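User: For a benchmark we're assembling, each entry needs the component sequences followed by a predicted structure for the full assembly. Here are entry 17's components. Please fill in the structure.
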Amino acid sequence: MIRYIIKRFFVSLITVWILATLTFFLVRALPGDPFSSEKITPEIKANMMKYYGLDKPLPVQYVTYMTNLLKGDMGYSLRYKNREVNAIIADAFPASAELGIRSLIFSITVGLILGIIAALNHNKGWDYISMIIAVIGVSVPSFVVGALVQYLFGIHWKILPVAQWKSFAHTIMPTFSLGLGTLALIARLMRTSMLEVVGQDYIKTAKAKGLSPIQVTVKHQIRNAILPVVTVLGPIAAALLTGTFVVEQIFAIPGLGRHYVLSIQNLDYTMVLGLTIFFGAFLVFMNFLVDIAYGFVDPRIRVGK
Amino acid sequence: MRRSLTLVIVMLLALSLVLTACGPKAPAEEPTPGEEPAAGEKVLRFHIGAEPPALDQQIATDTYAIMLGNHLYEGLVRVYDGDIQPGMAESWEISEDGLTYTFHLRDAVWNDGEPVTAHDFEYGIKRLLDPATASEYAYQGYYILNGEAYNTGKITDPSQVGVKALDDKTLEIKLENPTGYFLSLTNFISLFPVRQDFVETHGTAYASEADKILYNGPFIMTEWRHEDGLVLEKNDKYWNKDAIKIDRVEIAIVTDSNTAMGMYEAGDLDFVMLPAARVQEFIDNGQAKFYYDGAEFYFQFNVKGKTPETGKFTGNANFRKALGFAIDRQSFVDAVLKNGSDPATRYVLPLLAGVNDTFAEEYPYEFYSKNADVDKAKEYLNKALEEIGATADQIPTFEYLTDDSDTARISAEAIQDMLKRNLGINIEIKQVPFKQRLELMTALDYDIVFAGWGPDYDDPLTYLDLWVIGGGNNDSGWEDQTYTDMINFIRTSPDLKARADKMFEAEKYLLENGPVVPVYFRRRAWIHVDGLTGLVRNFIGADPDFTYADITR
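Assistant: Structure for entry 17:
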């Protein structure tokens, strides 16, 4: 197990390094530069490029960046000039992560329940209701859901605060809007998987042994059906936790989401790199967690023993 | 079952570990619903569209920082609703030749109790111009003697820059040229004072957090939750605090204009910009208010053309005017923009200052008509074709460069349709991100671009001097000595009337011969709650200005 973890760690490190290198050169290939603006004069721009070391040859800049990165220093943002990329991410990540965790818990709980109900009532009323909810969740994008619930609950009925990230009440609509798509995905996955499992021999055996239907469902069917859901949880968790542009924009949440879009628009090189590395590392880490989690769920996949 | 539970717990534990490891600050968890402001406390609540990238006086460039700076800091003078009022300077003298300004400072203090001195101004201005500061707005100090030379490294001795603290309370500023609008320029954030010891203590972290800033304005910032919101409170040490009525200002950072509108409707904000789709509704119920934000939008032609073929046409003044007359400005603002903007029938923004009144009052002029003038357009086109020696079917398709926003796309399509219908001229729309557009403009890699400009100071020159030979923003390839001479006269003339006459002459010359065709002056629609008074909307500098605003609920 330890050997496996160490191996995974190094593979992850190399993955992130390749990601950083690619991003470093790709973002420089974008047309324009971080300091172009309508009013700037060429002399002032040249001076700023020099100040931020952007006038040096690209390979030199690359080595400098990587050396600093090894020390954990991602440099100063080229747009938020007095703030370090580390500090910006540390400021914005908690809000995104909190929203992500809430959505994750919401979508896993409700998604699994819906999926299980649907499978147990295959081709009956409950199945159709669950799947209608799932289809709506998958096909209606979060900006529509967000705007709709915001109008209904925030402006029309005035039950919930319209936007911002302050109290528990402020989190309800964003959590719902962000989680709905994932909920639908999990529900569908769980249903399909449950239906596959139900025809397996060990279910027949369990029934033949005279176990109660509840025991069969809980101990054998769900246990085995949940595996595909666990597989997708890694990337989903990484995506939800590191911020999403649309929902954060609609509900004015001070998360990472807007930085993904704005940093590219502003050609804020250090910020783009910092975010990519952060997101990449996070994704790799979540997948690692999932791999370990397999072992708990399914003894057949236990690693390294 | 037990194993699945363990799994969930392990996952959650891991997540919480990750969270605590990465987040030094707890997520903003301050339950506020139902919390009413303390009795008698006057609170103003509004939103801004983005986090101010920097509040450092000499680094700040964006509109929100300029707005905040106007309330958190104070320069030598304060410009309120177009009037120059004494600020940190109690009085001042201007020499006969208009080149030397002597400011006498009042007894004012920073929020830590230390006095604001002339040395703080001298340090701030030299810091702005120091190449080591790498300030984007360094050019705001180029009016000052040797400012540009020092900033561009032609001289290295800062003591040659024309700003000097004669003593703690007296500041002398020498200019390159007599600049009539220099007093109002000292109200710009780049020329605000900063205290050397404080800046040096904090180094690069200066002004990155609310407690790493020194304030000398009517308000101090008590909270800066990045990307989330800011809280300003009345500055008890401000010299003119009795004139300030608002006790507390809560500014939310909300990017989406529809969200902000929703917050206003739910009673969370006291004033808000109207999203385009809602403007008509509030015109109908009589609540909508409009103000110019200073921006003007125009066609800018690359007189050399993207190709020699198109250059033959874009380089022809009559061809450019033909396009100008083929545009129906009124229906463009009414049907496309729908925000109350004004058709631009001349080049100079109507609000800019003339000698005693606005320039537009003193020099009324209408070059283009509000509606399309198809006859005139065709007349100019025929003249152009004659001069070029081409026939109508030889007119190539022109590349029309514009931003990648939705508004830009709809605007471009409307223009495309008008040119096709009124003149039979085809344009191909090319939408690119803002920074790429600027790069293509600098490289003269376009035929026509839809560009805009906002004023830096309250004088028509801020628009007119764009088009001089060698001008840093003249990305049109148009090089005209007559025009450049006019601008040079305006820049150096101490005679205000002669100068204004020349500006009018330059404006007419530019419309007749220049590379620009004005389209519209942007206005913005907004609404506010009843009981909010004294809030000023500005077309230049800090907007909105709530310094002397009052609110009764």
